[in-house]
């Protein structure tokens, strides 16, 4: 697998990209010590917001009952990660 440099300085919470409350940090390849990019640094409050959003999505939508939709979303995520 080839690692590509990235700059992912936002968190996806409740369907929105927001900056991490902890700023950003360098992502470093441990084998080469090459800086691959930057990533958002989430805090405990960011984590709480993400968990609350996930709970709402699970409780207030058909996500937990619509198995076909959930499978499509997970396949789309897999494809994006492999791209």
From TrEMBL:
Domain Aldehyde dehydrogenase: 20-81
GO MF term set: oxidoreductase activity
Protein name, entry field: Aldehyde dehydrogenase family protein
InterPro entries: Ald_DH/histidinol_DH, Ald_DH_N, Aldehyde_DH_dom
Top-level division of the source organism's lineage: Bacteria
Pfam families, per database record: Aldedh
Keyword tags: Oxidoreductase
Species, as recorded: Rhodococcus oxybenzonivorans
Entry's family note: Belongs to the aldehyde dehydrogenase family.
